Amino acid sequence: MSTGFHVAIVGATGAVGAELIQLLEQREFPLEGLKLLASSKSAGKALKFRGEEIPVETLSHHSFKAVDIALFSAGASISREYARQAIADGAIVIDNSSAFRMEPEVPLVVPEINSSDIRQHRGIISNPNCTTIIALMALYPLHVTFGLKRVIAASYQAVSGAGAKAIRELSLQSKAFFSGEPAAPEVFPHAIAFNVMPQVDVFLDNGYTKEEVKFVNESRKIMHHPALRASITCVRVPVFRAHSVALNAEFEQPVSVERAHDVLAKFQGLELVDDPGSKRYPTPLLAAGKNNCQVGRIRADSALDNGLAFWVCGDQLLKGAALNALQIAEALGK
């Protein structure tokens, strides 16, 4: 009798796919078999897993026979084309794209926050946007204690959130900057090396970007808080890995830094790094490669009643993507 799951990774050769493979190797996930799927460009490749070379198969509508859990991380268009087929073949889809997040029947899950929503799935469970996950890891425990009314935020998003090609673009542009050679942008609309861009995703008619609207809508859905008032400016910064978010939050109940410290220090998956006197606070370099998100710079907000200002960092390839997806799979296993 089988003691584990047959898992397929769609987008296995991408940045998040690589993290999923590594996490499956590191964690005690009940794995019976692993199938690696990617586009035809990756045909012939093989990736190491537990000391073995596993061939990368070309994704097709016939890829999901005998698959229990399909971890999708290849973009919304691929998810829309292939997820229903995976479900028809008996798999549960955990999707890292934006394709199904706001569909009412699809749970949008951060396991530390709303794991009970997983039980409502009809074959698809969505992984939230990376910026949303990282911000909510600090916002949610404060919401539970003090009642969140309003949040104003600004994100500082690493290039790896845009995939492996974006990582390469920052690297090449950085080298070109110091050698005096031109390096035209391809992934981003402007040069990213030694620059910041107040644009992540495309602009909508209301002046916000899709990324910014995702943060608002997804936060409301995950926290079951439809009345939440929120606004964010999403910014791409020349950091390879780990997103940061500056947050100003207003609450229903009186708040204090001391009580906030106590609440945040106890929340699973979150590390309190807040000692300004010793210059200890979260940074992308400190958070990169770590499973936990980090929160610091916590202070009383000087412009809001019952308000706190704080700073969160998290590895968006891990908790913002691969780790969160695998935690959902682990919850299914239980």
Explain briefly what this protein structure is.
The chain is α/β, with parallel strands linked by helices. The chain has two domains: 5-127 and 321-333, NAD(P)-binding Rossmann-like Domain (Rossmann fold, 3-Layer(aba) Sandwich); 132-316, Dihydrodipicolinate Reductase, domain 2. 31% of the residues lie in helices and 25% in strands.
Draw up the topology in text.
Layout: E1 5-10, H1 15-26, E2 31-38, E3 46-49, E4 52-58, E5 69-72, H2 76-88, E6 92-95, H3 111-114, E7 124-126, H4 130-146, E8 148-157, H5 164-179, H6 210-222, E9 229-236, E10 243-251, H7 257-265, E11 270-272, H8 284-287, E12 293-300, E13 307-314, H9 318-333
Parallel strand pairs: 1-2, 1-5, 2-4, 5-6, 6-7, 8-9, 11-12
Antiparallel strand pairs: 3-4, 8-10, 10-13, 12-13
Fold and architecture overview:
The radius of gyration is 20 Å and the shape is globular. The protein has two domains: about 140 residues, NAD(P)-binding Rossmann-like Domain (Rossmann fold), CATH 3.40.50.720; about 180 residues, Dihydrodipicolinate Reductase, domain 2 (2-Layer Sandwich). The strands form two sheets. It has a seven-stranded mixed beta sheet with strand order 3-4-2-1-5-6-7, with helices on both faces. By secondary structure, it is α/β, with parallel strands linked by helices.
